[in-house]
Amino acid sequence: MKTGYTGLFIPGPTNIPERVMQAMTLHLEDMRAPDFGQFTLGLLNDLKKVFKTKTGQPMIFPSSGTGGWESALTNTLNPGDKVLCSAFGQFSHLWADMCARLGFEVVRLEVEWGKGVPVEEYARVLSEDKDHSIKAVLACQNETATGVTSDIAGVRKALNDAGHPALLFVDGVSSVGSIDFRMDEWGVDVIVSGSQKGFMLPTGLGIICASEKAFEAHKNSKFPRCFFSWEDMKNSYTNGFFPYTPATTILRGLRESLDMIEEEGLENVFKRHTHLATGVRKAVIDGWGLKLCAQGPEWYSDTVSAIVVPEENDAAKVITRAYERYNTSLGSGLSKVAGKVFRIGHLGWLNEIMVLQAVAAAEMAMKDTGINIELGSGVAAAQAHFIGSNQG
Ligand SMILES: *Cc1c(COP(=O)(O)O)cnc(C)c1O
After folding, report:
1. CATH number of the domain residue 181 falls in
2. What separation in Å is there between the alpha carbon of 149 and the centre of ligand 1?
3. pLDDT tens digits for range 283-292
């Protein structure tokens, strides 16, 4: 049946609110018009609230999250610099891989998929690095492949305890605007996000924010760069303009999505995500009797759940069945967990009933593909959580 909406329950791109869609239904405009600069400056100012920073400099590239990663590395470091990172899922792996491909010396800690940033190991490596040869520490706040959220405050503490001056870079592509993130309080030097996840927009913007310390490092960074040059971007931001053509249409959408976040209240947005995620977890654990890839509540992500299917079953079949028969997109298992997990993305513009829709579709698709699931069990477990609450 292909009438009605195709359910979009992948962890990005996410559902675009009607308001945001309408805000983007407009003619293209002159990005050098006299009033365009004021419009941009308003966006940059409101982005600071989402990143929880007073002194950071937000920058918007016509790009995606991956471009944001690259800009963080190439604007602050020098070729051959040592960076500390950890890999515990496809996205943390890819950022570490980018570091290697850009020619940095990578200290890469391998972590079992299902856990997150190994804060204690970071603390050990940093305290042993007496001559401060490590120039940057990377941390993925929310590993989208496994549904694992890490402790960024803990990474900051590890740096402080070791008295280590390295820059702290955080991948917040699937957490910013959905899970609490505190740039200033956690002393984050570059936070990287993108438009198509918590910001509820089309893909096409790499949205980052850099600290004053990151801009100090920028002055001594000899890395070749052009398109992602912070200097060019910051200079043209003096008047709110861009060094090249910005994605004006998506920027109009960003205005609307920032207004929506402000109206709901950022803290309420986080609460809603926790509430909806808890419903999904009840469905998976209490209803279906299945396990999450995340190995324990301390790792649970409020934006995405990776659900492990029984060993004899193939999660890829569940995803195909859900799409073909039930008109519902579930997230696939990436790389190491391909066939082992399917994911439900529960971030962005979402409510309880949409979550129940995803759970119901997953339930039927699992049953159809031979997984021993009692119809209604997940839905009922999520409903029981939602009905007793006044959130949502
Ligand atoms: C989606 C995602 C990325 C990649 O972002 P793109 O916009 O696809 O380039 C990076 N990190 C995480 C954690 C993500 O979820």
Report:
1. 3.40.640.10
2. 14
3. 999 999 999 9
